[in-house]
# Entry
Amino acid sequence: MNAQRIVISGVGLTAPNANHLSDFRHCLLHKIARIQEIDVRYMGKLPAGVCDFDPLKYQNKKELRHCTRAASIGIFCAQEALCDAQISLETIDTSRVGVYVGITEHGNVETENEVHNLLQFNGDVKFWAHHHNPRTIANNPAGEINLKLGIQGPHYTIGAACAAGNAGIIQAVQMLRLGEVDLAIAGGISESIRSFGIFAGFRSQGALGYGSDPNRVSRPFDCKRNGIVVSEGGCLFIIERLSDVQKRFGKVYGEIVGYGMNTDATDAVLPNAERQAQCIRMALERAHLTPEEVTIINSHATSTPMGDAVECEAIRNVFGNSTKTYINNTKSFIGHTMGAAGALELAGNLPAFEDGYVHPTINIDELDPQCALENLVINEAKFVGNIETILNTSFGMLGTNSAIIVKKIV
# Structure
């Protein structure tokens, strides 16, 4: 790989509380969470993060009937990212564009729905949708983007549990440095709330959050946190070489200077603080940074009792009691967007390079002593001024860990 500088030049997203980066940032700075209760098959009403974007902005009704919710989220985010970067695919060689989409799960929704529908017709398979196979193949979300946008370069989804959003970004960086593509559309998406199995699985693990106010169920680091709020969402970035962006006088959100991925190899579900700390150190080493040079850590913390505490242990192992590093969390606003989490949470922090604020973690009434990190930003945004470096962590089942470091361009 060469040492070419890789940057983010466009952002397209949909989150439970916003459909544009500027609106998303406004919500994060002004403590606006939009979690609601939805009816989940077999389980009743549960808190969930639901996106409210317009799928007909880029697709027609026939296309929506044939494709998946995950694909619609991906198409919307990809188109918005291209518009944000002011790039027209008609003016570039699309065989040199790569699409790398991180996902936690795919195909569950369609299969559950088809089985449920089949049971209404005594198991007669003639009622099984003939679109089922292309809808449920693992590469569907990325492939639907290429199909809709006419992109002829490589596409694939990256299954990395809840670290998938970061994994999609890392893949883009690697492919650009290898010279395989000249532009990448990368990040993560999730349609998790459409699957009752996701909710049922977390409940069986004792990890599904509950409470009377949906907007306060996701409460990372709080003593009364009791589990995850399942959410859908998506965020895709335009990722390019800095030299190419400069040639077209494009804008730059930040430079991706470091990343790390590793595996706990200790348990399918339970996290490992030592391996998480190792992953963070890998990212710092690649970025040639010391812990004291990181301004913001956007934590993965999902609002589970053990998960949050283990991550805080990992952060302490690397950063000690650094007074120069601030920690926040985005899931307290939008719940856990699974495969989209890493990408969405990074996006929400990128404007800090411009406005100088660290957005808070909300819903903390009583901080758990195990999570009492130095400079944890609680309930109110904090103005820091010069923010130079953001570290974004995402961890997932089967022990997959990821960390990305983005630096302000000066």
Q: What stands out?
A: The chain is about 35% helix and 20% strand. The first strand starts at residue 6 and ends at 14. The radius of gyration is 20 Å. The CA atoms of residues 8 and 377 lie 26 Å apart.
